[in-house]
């Protein structure tokens, strides 16, 4: 069912709900407040650690412990850049993560505005996909695309950057399909069996490929 006249922040939360993301770690900040307020009205659990860096590492650890992808959400500028170490850790260890950063309004982009930063440019080398949203209508499709990419093949973090005015403007939620993706589909029992064989071998050798 299509939903009209939702704010960008509400579209974000509706998409996260449809993607079965149960937990979002984050740290509040002025430009991120529309998303955080929408989260509090949903069934998604919002956990605020002591810093944005802690939030990114928590989202990483959540996947390692549960096998479920988590969101991480922060405001613009230093809030966004504080995610980088946690995102880089997840990228190097192939941990999927959906990072959502707020940014200054679109009319302030590229003008060295207070707490403006090109977070997509910074995050591109350590994510599978980093994209800045320019309209509320774009949000649903991009979030679902990013989610599918995060879980496809070698799992990795992705980042979606949303300017403040996009979070406030209204748009339509069209219930777009989630793009098909193919994960690694590891068979844990086979992994354990392989480990047992290697551990018990006198002269172990692996021919991979």
- Strands ordered across the widest β-sheet: 3-2-4-5-7-6
Number of helices: 9
What's the architecture in CATH terms? 3-Layer(aba) Sandwich
Shape: elongated
The span between the termini is 46 Å
Q: H/E series, N to C? A: EHEHEHEHHEHEHEHEH
Query: What's the total count of β strands?
Result: 8
- How many structural units, i.e. domains? 1
CATH fold name: Rossmann fold
Helix content: 40-55%
InterPro entries: THDP-binding, Thiamin_PyroP_enz_TPP-bd_dom, TPP_enz
GO molecular function, one term: thiamine pyrophosphate binding
Domain Thiamine pyrophosphate enzyme N-terminal TPP-binding: 7-120
Organism: Candidatus Stercoripulliclostridium merdigallinarum
Structure at a glance:
The protein has helices at residues 8-18, 33-40, 52-66, 78-81, 84-92, 119-123, 136-151, 164-168, 188-200, and strands at 3-7, 23-26, 45-47, 71-74, 97-103, 129-132, 157-163, 170-173. The chain has 209 residues and is of the alpha/beta class.
